[in-house]
Model the fold of this input.
Amino acid sequence: RRDSRRPVRAAPQPPPHPTELFTDRLLLVLTGHKPLHWFARHTTGHAFDDLLWLLDHRPLPRTGPRPTVHDVGHFVAGPAAYEVFARIAVGPRLHALAFRLARTEDHRWRCTAVELDTRPPRETYE
Done:
């Protein structure tokens, strides 16, 4: 018989998958809720430059309805790499977010590339 004076403990939740964690982090940066330098340590390769370009040319709205994550999916591109896609809703409009994650030698996940909706190929802004 259970003692009714003891609080019921919730089962521990597993940590979020890296794809979900990075989707949330990217959304905070792309909406201006966190500065880009806050995310910089989580990037490698072209990701920082990709985010700079996106923030200058196609940021998500900073006013109006708050963007929400509708769906996150991923493809395992290798033993230490994910190709991630997410649908982001801003009011009635859906945006496509795509990014790549790679596990680096220090065993941490880093974002290596980011795209939001459509944009010119990388060569046009390097």
The mean pLDDT is 86.
